[in-house]
Amino acid sequence: MTPTLDRRAFLAAGFAAAAAAIVTPEMALAGAAPPAWLLGVGDVEADLPEQAMRLVHGRAPAGFAGRLYRNGPAKFRRGGSAAGHWFDGDGLVRKFEVQGGRARLTARFVDTPKRRLEARLGAMVQPGFGTPPGPGARIANTEDVNAANTGVMMAGGELLALWEGGSPARLDPASLETRGFRTFRPDLRYMPFQAHPRDEPGGAVWNMGLSGAQAIAWKLNGDGSLARADVIELPRRSYFHDFTATARHLVIVLQPWINESFRLPLATGMLWRPELGTQVLVLDKDDLSRRRIFELPSFAFFHLGDAWEESDGTIRFDGAFEADPSFGQRAAAALLRGEHHRMPHPILTQVVLRPDGRAELLPAGVAAEFPSSDRRFSGLARRYTNHVTHYRDTPFPHAIARWDWQSGRETLFDFGDHQLVEEFLFAPRGGGEGNGWLIGTTLNLARNATELHLLDAERLAAGPVASWRAALPLPLTFHGTFAA
């Protein structure tokens, strides 16, 4: 039987307990001669009014139209202070709209209590994943520290800016004006709602929220209204940023990055325990008390691809897996100081969960992050995974690729050393899986500008069919959504 939801107890087990552990921040900004890639974690000082982007290559296919929304941190420094981690900057939502062969760009900060307080104080004081609280910090609830900087989703005619520790922020999808936080039910205010929702073919959406040894499983109807919210007891206090789902099951990967204690910044309370291995918790969507646990060797991860179930009950999904969480623990914080901690990059890997309880890892052998696929096949059998790759001598990738799990081959387009590549999303053209476009953004270091690109997913190696350039550079984003 699913445990009864108790918001106060749920929050006390996680965020609220951390709020008492305020420490003084100690950080110095980077010195002179910063590397060129530091532009990817630069500061934006104000909203960007709607403006045209210049077509610099090719042309958009006839009839192609839609809006690509992207979200990511874009304000890290105020006065002599700075955020302590890449994950903690203020969220800036971008809208790239393509219509009639032309592209337009709008960007607007999410108007959060965190941003308003820090603007008033002239300092970065609110804590986060890797940022300690500073003088004047206010931590009454999750809305106070919500950076709204990680992802976006459409729900009920609104655009939701997602974080992972609290409620989504509501935005007008046309103007990007902030309308406050979304409370799905009065007793669910302040509850964590993560940045990686999973679609069902019928239009419903599942998501997770994490608090120590518990998670909340959210299900939204196709119109964005709440269908259900259930507390799940986890077998361990693993940190997870993403989950996945088949048509019938929720799949939670419990890496041995353990929430040993709750203090601020949050990452300081998490320990890497590789001797524990990795567990995969599989839950029946219709009855979340029906569960199975699979055991795998230890690995760390941030992002997973969609899962599917075969006729014999075998479950498959993929992800970008690392040997340990060094990037999240140290390297992502060092980026803001202009430091590149060189380390092995995540490897695209398929997980296979057999009906008899066996589990195995099938590495593709290619470096990969930000896996995505054709959303028409969410929870269903699929062949392709789109991902970024080719990191070379920077902390950010330079190429977009598609891995074919059937043939075991990768097709890619490398934008070159001067381009930092962000997550690309699939836009369907019609027909079967993979018949469509990949749309995404890059940061062109040579031109000091953000660019929007459209590629034919089935002719990826040919490069963009159309590219547009903005008049200025914007820092790199995390996740987005495409709306036709």
Give a description of the structure:
The protein has a single domain (7-25, 37-483), classed as Methylamine Dehydrogenase, Chain H, CATH 2.130.10. Mean pLDDT is 93; it is low at 8-31. It is mainly beta. It has helices at 7-12, 15-18, 113-121, 142-145, 326-334, and strands at residues 48-58, 66-73, 77-78, 81-82, 91-99, 102-109, 151-155, 158-162, 169-171, 178-181, 198-199, 205-211, 214-220, 226-233, 244-245, 249-254, 257-259, 270-272, 278-284, 287-296, 300-304, 308-309, 315-322, 347-353, 359-367, 369-372, 384-389, 399-404, 409-414, 419-428, 436-444, 449-456, 464-469, 479-483. A hairpin with a 2-residue loop joins strand 7 (151-155) and strand 8.
Strand arrangement, major sheet: 30-31-32-33-1-6-5-2-34
Please give the number of β-strands. Answer: 34
Report the sheet-strand fraction.
35-45%
Report on the biggest sheet. Answer: 9 strands, antiparallel
**Helix content, binned percent:** under 10%
Overall tally of domains: 1
CATH-assigned fold name: Methylamine Dehydrogenase, Chain H
Class of secondary structure makeup: mainly beta
User: Residue-averaged pLDDT, rounded?
Assistant: 93
Low-pLDDT ranges: 8-31
CATH superfamily: YVTN repeat-like/Quinoprotein amine dehydrogenase
Shape: globular
The second-level CATH architecture is 7 Propeller
Return the CATH class.
Answer: Mainly Beta
Q: In DSSP terms, counting alpha (H) and pi (I) runs of 4 or more, how many helices?
A: 5
Rg, nearest Å: 21 Å
Termini Cα gap: 40 Å
